[in-house]
């Protein structure tokens, strides 16, 4: 039910309903609540999200889905340092976790950090990863980035070239490079 409310842009109702229910959140509810707080990104959401994070059971702390939701929430709040702490604590990171962390850096205009993190990824890249990396390259537009962006574009699988967001971000990057 919570997830449906977030999907329908009524994240505030998720927090209201959670407050009314007075239940201990399991891993699924916790992840959904973090997502609701990220969507709302207001004082109530920050207070609720940080409280939930502080009270989160220890056995949930290395669960990728929960940790990734918490990272997303913290990045939306502008709490990069706390997001980085959680990211570093995850033993086995997946590509979604890397994507959320990179997107968080971009959202906080920390493009160099996003690109540095991108260069640490030793997993199969997704179209989202390519899109975020191209967007970083377009924002930075220096010699290092031009080299990275063009190499990345050359290595990109053909099926990602048909993805509108990915191809648009690649075109934007090339235009910023003056490579029309």
From TrEMBL:
GO terms for biological process: RNA modification. PPR repeats lie at residues 94-124. Pfam families: PPR_2 (PF13041). It comes from the Eukaryota. PROSITE patterns: PPR. One of its GO terms (molecular function) is RNA binding. Transmembrane segments: none annotated. Coiled coil: none annotated. It comes from Rotaria magnacalcarata. InterPro entries: PPR_At4g14850-like_plant, PPR_rpt, TPR-like_helical_dom_sf. This is Pentatricopeptide repeat-containing protein.
């Amino acid at each position: 039910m919570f997830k449906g409310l977030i999907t329908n842009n009524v994240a505030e109702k998720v927090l209201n309903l959670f407050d009314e229910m007075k239940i201990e959140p399991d891993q699924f509810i916790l992840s959904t609540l973090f997502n609701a707080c990220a969507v709302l990104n207001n004082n109530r959401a920050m207070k609720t999200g940080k409280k939930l994070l502080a009270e989160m059971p220890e056995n949930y702390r290395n669960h990728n889905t929960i940790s990734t939701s918490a990272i997303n929430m913290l990045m939306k709040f502008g709490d990069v340092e706390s997001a980085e702490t959680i990211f570093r604590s995850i033993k086995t990171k997946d590509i979604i976790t890397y994507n959320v962390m990179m997107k968080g850096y971009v959202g906080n205009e920390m493009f160099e950090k996003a690109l540095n993190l991108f260069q640490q990824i030793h997993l199969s890249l997704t179209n989202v990863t390519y899109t975020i990396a191209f967007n970083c390259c377009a924002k930075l537009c220096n010699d290092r980035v031009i080299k990275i962006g063009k190499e990345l574009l050359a290595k990109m699988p053909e099926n990602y070239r048909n993805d509108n967001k990915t191809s648009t971000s690649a075109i934007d990057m090339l235009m910023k490079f003056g490579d029309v």
